[in-house]
Structures are given as C-alpha cells and as structure tokens.
Amino acid sequence: xxxxxxxxxxxxxxxxxxxxxxxxxxxxxxxxxxxxxxxxxxxxxxxxxxxxxxxxxxxxxxxxxxxxxxxxxxxxxxxxxxxxxxxxxxxxxxxxxxxxxxxxxxxxxxxxxxxxxxxxxxxxxxxxxxxxxxxxxxxxxxxxxxxxxxxxxxxxxxxxxxxxxxxxxxxxxxxxxxxxxxxxxxxxxxxxxxxxxxxxxxxxxxxxxxxxxxxxxxxxxxxxxxxxxxxxxxxxxxxxxxxxxxxxxxxxxxxxxxxxxxxxxxxxxxxxxxxxxxxxxxxxxxxxxxxxxxxxxxxxxxxxxxxxxxxxxxxxxxxxxxxxxxxxxxxxxxxxxxxxxxxxxxxxxxxxxxxxxxxxxxxxxxxxxxxxxxxxxxxxxxxxxxxxxxxxxxxxxxxxxxxxxxxxxxxxxxxxxxxxxxxxxxxxxxxxxxxxxxxxxxxxxxxxxxxxxxxxxxxxxxx
Length: 463
Ligand code: FCB
Prior knowledge:
It is built from 15 helices and 15 strands. Strands 1-2-3-4-5-7-10-13 form an eight-stranded parallel barrel, surrounded by six helices. A three-stranded mixed sheet has the order 6-8-9. Helix content is 37%, strand content 15%. The model has no long low-confidence stretch (mean pLDDT 97). The longest helix has 25 residues, at 196-220. It is an alpha/beta fold and 463 residues long. The termini are close together. Bound molecules: beta-D-fucopyranose. Beta-D-fucopyranose binds next to loops.
C-alpha cells in the first residue's frame, strides 16, 4: 500500500461501500439510430452533417449502435460490476419536435434501459439534456429563445412522470457552459453560433431551464429520487484578476443563480460591454434557485492564465475574456492535449465544498482520451494495454480519495466513458472509453483500464 505520493499515484486506498463507482455516456455519442422509432432531428444531427463542423465529417448516425445493442451493452455494464450507470435521454426521441405529447417508442427505449439496469443491480442516473436539442426548437431560436426553457420543463415532466419511480438521480443539464458558450460563443459545438451576447442569453435561458426543470421533476418523481445538475467547473490558475474574471463567466454564471439565487455583481459589470442582461426577467432568479440534492462535477484538466493584455473582444468560449492570455502548462497531456493534473480535481472539490458546504458532490465525469492500440494475445484474445489511461484513473481516484479524507462530502465517481464514442467536434478520432469499440464491426473489447476498474469496484480498493 502506498499513500500520499506527490504525484497522486497511490494504490491500496479503500473506498467506502456506499461510495458510488460508476461510468457515464451520453445519448448522441453512443446511440445511433437517428431516424428510427419516431426520433426527430437534433441540433447535433444538423451540425455534424454540416461540412467542416466535425473532424473527418463524422456524425452520430451510427455511433456505437447502442440503440440496437441495448441488451448486450447492459450485460457489458453488469460484467464490470458498476454500482451506477450515468446515461442521457435524447429529447428528440421523447418529443420529436421538442413539444407536444410523448413518443411512446422513445419512452419505451429508456424504460428498457432503466429496467435492464435495475434487473442487473445497477443504479440508473439519468441526464435530461446532454446537448441534443430538438432541431425544431432551434428553428424557433433554440437557447436564445426563452420559450425553450419552458419547453424543457414540459419535457422533464414527461420523462420524470414515466421513469420517476425508477431513476435514482436526475440531472437536469450536462455542462450548460458548453451548450451556451461552445454552442453560441466559439461556435465549436452545435448550433455553431459565434456571438457573445447570444451566448450570454443562452446561458441565462439554460439556467432558467434548470430551475423550471427541477420544479417540474419534483412534481412527478418519487420522494427518494435525487435531483442534480452537472457542471464542468473550470480550475483556473494564474493571476488573481484574470482568474476572477474567467471564473465569473466560466463557473459563477451558473452556480451563482442556481445555488446562491443571484448573478455575481462582478460578472454583470465585466460583461456590460456585451449585454445589458435585459433577458433576465423579474422573478427569474427565484425560478432558477431551486434546492438540489447533489452537485455533479465533470473534471478533466486545468487552465493557466496570464495578466490581461487589453485586446479587443472576440466571440469566445469565455465571453469577454479573450484579452486574457492562456499559458502553456507542464505535461503530461492526454490525446486531447489536456494536461493531466489530479491536484486540480482535489482543488476543485475543496473549493466547491467550501462554497457549498451542505451540498453533496459527485464526480459525474472524469477520464482521458489516448491513442489506444488494439492487439491480439497468444490465445487469440483482443487486448488494449492502455497503461496511460490506467495511470490517469489511478491518479484521479487518488485525488477523490484524498477529498474524502479531507472530509468533503463526495458521493461517487463516474468514469468517462464506458466506451469509445462520438467525441463531438472531434468525431471518432478521440477514444475515451474503458471499453474499446471497433467502429467497423461494433465489437466491444475491455481495455486494461476496464479490467483495472472492475477490480477497483469488486475490491473497493485502488489496485
Ligand atoms: C465533456 C462532455 C462529454 C465528453 C467529455 C470528454 O465535456 O460532457 O460528453 O465529451 O467532455
């Protein structure tokens, strides 16, 4: 047993039995079957079919073909011994145009998924919105249109009513920062807008959707089910003023209204050149500020910034901060060129716990893309010796364990991702799975990281 290594490479650390060891996916990234059983188009269908938007012209049309392989994928989940599985529900399968009655075939798919998990002793954790907005709503203004927040609440009520007795944890939104700012600022994600004012408008409407969604869910789900939201809270390091500005528009723009009931004053001041915030209507903050049971955190890497240089403001993923230089950081790096920095996870958990001491935390995503090599061993068995991913997971589970030791109310850790999948603007070029997917044959192969994780779950101890 090794503990307290400065590089976070500990082994032998024990996790309590109630600590949830899971893995995560999202609908558009794995399901395929994009025009089956009444599913409508989403903004990611449109975006991925737009020339030049996604690397190699990849789309989610087939992805991991999970929609047709549900039973065997459920068996795969069970074979790893996962305590819980985090998946997302495709809004356009439930309401093909984003409004109106539920499509029974869409609901039936997720009922089979949830029941299949429960039959196998795996706890279902469902995200309502992981970026696949029905295209029909985008045509009416998408997240730039306030009405989309109300449509989201109707959708939440439908799904909560149908599955609310069986899903343990409901997450309203996954990473609204990405929806708002990659979708409307930098334009790297669907729907591909590049406009800082629209991006900030979208952020507010996503906040409103969260609040209305929480209230709608509470009306229909069982009393024991929990409600959460997942944020990719950024760990920003550097000079204090730059850190303050980026944290304002990167993190506090969401946690402020959702968890404190107000937009931070410094955020409003910083962004005044971009918008007058007149899209915030009287009463909105009360609607947004709903109690939640657990806060989901996605963590991958850190960002290092330098003092602002005072240049003009372009549309960006952090509206109004493109005068702040992003600095190089020491490696190692993943295939995404993201730095591997487990201390950032501990820093983030500690800071979030300090700000919201009564709110339980859950790591809803952490993981790494590497350029895996598939081999065949002497017995003809497929192998992926992904030692770098095992090392990443070891170091980040060590950070999670240190958070527990520090008294932080951390409830679980979901590895991103269960299997290789459609990595948004990177298409299939980045592999995050602990299970390899051969996209020609759809064959699934447990990588060494899956075998390592299976042992961690079985023993409740870092191998
Ligand atoms: C997160 C997303 C998830 C996946 C990982 C790598 O931002 O929530 O779908 O793409 O990044």
